[in-house]
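Good morning,

Both structures are done.
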Amino acid sequence: MIERPGDPPVAGPRLPAAGANPGPTRERFLTGTMLGIATGSVLVPINSTMLAVALPSVMDTFGVDAATVASLVTVYLGAVAVALPASGSLGDRFGHRRVFLVGVLAFGLASLLAASAASFAVLAASRVLQAVSGALVSTSAIALVRAEAPPDRRGAAFGLFDMLVSTSAALGPLIGGLIVGWFGWRAMFFVAAPVALVAAAAVGVLAPPRTVLVDEAATAGRRPIDLPGLGLLALTLVALLVALRGADAGVGGTIAAFAVVPLLAAFLVVELRTRHPAVDPRLFASKPFAAAITGVFGATVVLHGCFLLVPLLVERLQHGSPETTGLVLLGISALGAIAAPYGGRISDRIGRRAPAVAGMAATAAALAVLWQVAPAASSLVLAAALSVVGFGMGLSGSPRQAAALETIAPDRVGMAAGTYYTGRYLGGVVGASLAGAVLGGAVTGAGVSLGFGLLAAVGAIVVVASFGLPGRTAAGSGARAGEGAR
């Protein structure tokens, strides 16, 4: 952190000043700290990828239809979206390392509750608890990765982090398919408990990170928590989630739909007048940040739409097994994991824009193919097309994330990360809701085709939005300028 005249001195170790040792080299990015952060971060996406395979089994256990089981996904993603801004503020206030440790341990406990759920309502409630814990993990993890990396290597650092997380998440469908096929869907939730313990040990005991201690010393106690803003944001997001349920929500859905705009307006007024807002609307005045938020929202619409459409297509229409679903979905995360570090490194050299545009163009093209052929396609064709979808999203993800955060001051990273991830999980809510609405109470070939067609249109919109990311010159200068920004 760079001190300014008049700032109180910060005790303890200091971050390198501009022009000093730039920090860890590429080879040193793969540290015990990074592995511990990535291990905890895996909990959130892997519970989405594994659950996708288990959805048909959950439908059979509790006797619910496709639209209802889709709500199990949207409740989780929606609760994460509501909790993310609060978790970012908590990290800025109390230190991201502490928040990370609380989050991973709470996630493990919530997963044990899900494994023992006796009804669909209890399972949904446990997913909400997982969501709140996962929000604590997500925002604190991204802040820790930022603290570990020098400004001119953040693209590579986020790329490596994405690779570590995505590789594990990529195995989610395969592992989930095997677990569900052999032991049932309940056994799937037990996986999170040991993962949470390993992450807590790595970050809290085995490898206490130096830069995290600096981060906590510099930020803990500095920023107050914006309770009015967080309350209004939560009400706005809840109203939006209820409105998205449409006719299923009855009169409440109609009331919620009319309440969204007034609540959003009130939230914006409060945040613009608050010295330390939970979500600063002024961030969206930055073209790169606005483009990154639009991009991550659209990309997760695509991802979670696929995670709902594909299992129901394979297991209901094509009468495949959970293991087959896992293999078909493996490519979307596996190729994303392979592409992620290359996208980050390329963006460090040529700017964030080019790899983000190219990656999402490939994703949109593959979705357009699925729009035409998905219902009658073989498992091999489905897996190949989804691999291209995943490769494109992996190539574009790291540049987008680096562009969103590299101009943010260190004491505001938690807030900015919470905003970024709120956009991400709202995209997941919309994607799952969209797929559930298209399928309705029955899974048909026409519904699946329409779903992929809509996802292809979303991918095309993200391509256009990605042109707002910084190019070659802006990417390098923005990373350095953000270190002293306030």
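Second structure follows.
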Amino acid sequence: MTILSAIGLTKEYQMGGVTVTALQGVDLAVNKGEFVAIMGPSGSGKSTLLHLLGGLDGASAGEITLGGQALGRLSDDAITRVRRRKIGFIFQFYNLLPTLTAEENIALPLLIDGQDLAPHRAKIAGLLELVGLTDRRAHRPNQLSGGQQQRVAIARAFVTAPEIVLADEPTGNLDSRAGTAILDLLRRSCGELGATIVMVTHDPRAASYADRVIFLKDGVVVRELRTPEPNIPAIVEVMASLEL
């Protein structure tokens, strides 16, 4: 079942009187439970696409549908509610609040949405266990390693049981060992939580964890590769053929 789709997605910016096209007619469909990676060189439109899919920016043309809702037809307040309740975000630099504990950072989206935490305590405890931080639940970000902070950020992204999680270079600020642990965790979350993930990355190793890799160049989808098993050489070969 398709949970997220984009049809004819175009994004243009005005820079010094010049129109810059960041995305041009992008079509995309993501199925429930799927892990999709988006790859491309700097300036290819990867982050722009992720921001549009997450309702963080508006498209110049085209339509995005999430769970049957056309985002472009919603009011600003309705878009905000969709972001809070239906979309989880994972960023490269964690974006944790330094004064809150790991457990409190995980619960933050629920508090922002005005929800009572009592019914969610078991879920938060389960997420702490999933990311391996039960014994660090009372630690603040400065007491955690980079990899541990990203684990908190992942648990936070899943606490609202979102329809989709959008990850922007989630391993870009981590060493190889911590990055591998995060990718393993994202992969497991698809099976254990039924998660749907769209991840932007420049790293073929990270992309190899996905079910499908979409390649962008100059704002256009130029290739798609299915990866039923991790296959870094195949991804590198496509990148070379496309001069990415």
